[in-house]
Amino acid sequence: MTEPDEIQHTPSSAQRPDLDWSQVRETILMLNLSMTQIELALQDSSSSVGELTDSFTSISSALSAMREVACRLPDTPEVIAAKTEIENLGSEVSCKVNQSIVAFQFYDRLAQRLSYVCRNLDDLGTLVNDPVRLYNPFAWVALQQKIRSKYVTEDDKHMFDTLMATRDVHLALAEFIKRKREQQPEGDIELF
């Protein structure tokens, strides 16, 4: 016979509600689903970006070797024209490789932000799941301070502060974009 302590209790869910059903647990479940989807997307894209990074490193090395070989060719009129064409094409490829490296840096920043989102959602789920902390304003302030402390740029901190002060996502995002445009001359690329 099974002792009462040994009975396996399946938590209630929206599909099988009972007296123990909780919208808080449903919310946490949805937060965990969102975190899982973000984590899977990051893992999938990370391996692809790793392969692209390796490819561009190989392209850059091959380009350098090609230029060295071209430099060792004799300086006859026909070869000089070929060397010039090789140099011009090499410069073009180098430019494209550098643009790709900048794109990878933007991807890296995106991956960092999404990782922060996952950790923040996890911290939020932990707080919401704790009945003592759930209704404690100091616990919420502590969570908000913890989240803000993880931001590394002043723009991110300003966006956070704007959102906390106004409770308006669209305004916080518009302010963030406005600040970025004011700080960065057109055409410049910010490296991380």
Description:
This protein is mainly alpha-helical. The protein has a domain at 23-115. Helices cover 77% and strands 0% of the residues. The chain contains six helices and no strands. It has helices at 23-72, 77-129, 131-134, 137-149, 154-166, 169-183. Helix 1 packs antiparallel against helix 2 (77-129) and helix 2 runs antiparallel to helix 4. The radius of gyration is 27 Å and the shape is elongated. The termini are far apart. The model has no long low-confidence stretch (mean pLDDT 83).
The whole-angstrom Rg is: 27 Å
Number of distinct helices: 6
User: What proportion strand?
Assistant: under 5%
Structural class: mainly alpha
Form type: elongated
Number of strand elements: 0
Q: Give the H and E element order.
A: HHHHHH
End-to-end distance: 63 Å
Please summarize the sheet with the most strands. Answer: none
Low-confidence stretches: none
What share of residues is helical?
A: over 70%
Average of per-residue pLDDT values: 83
